[in-house]
Amino acid sequence: MGQYVLHAYVVMPNHVHILLDPVAPLPRITNGIKGVSARDANRALRRTGRAFWQDESFDHWIRTGAQCERIRNYIEQNPVKAGLVARAELWKWSSAHK
User: Fold this and answer.
1) Which residues are CB-contacts of 33 (< 8 A; sequence separation ≥ 6)?
2) Quick check: is 95 in a domain?
3) Mind listing the pLDDT tens digit for each residue in 76-93?
4) Which among 7, 37, 79, 84 could disulfide-bond with 19, CB atoms 3.0 to 4.6 Å apart, if both were Cys?
5) How many domains does the chain have?
């Protein structure tokens, strides 16, 4: 079994949003995602020995299905709100991408 069930995500130019159901402890999930993505991003950017992510992260427990849908919509609409695309499905780095 995996560490989480992924429901929605968006990678923005300066931040990331992820909506998931944790199966493993959240620090383990966060460290894993940040570690792998930092290594790959630094390799692509030809950077070594430099931090990629900030140490902190923000988590929020979702208690209802309606709240989950509201947050999924917020995440997937983030590139539209930022003026990066006209429609969420056009942002290639998102769960809304078709």
Assistant:
1) 18
2) no
3) 999 999 999 999 999 999
4) 7
5) 1
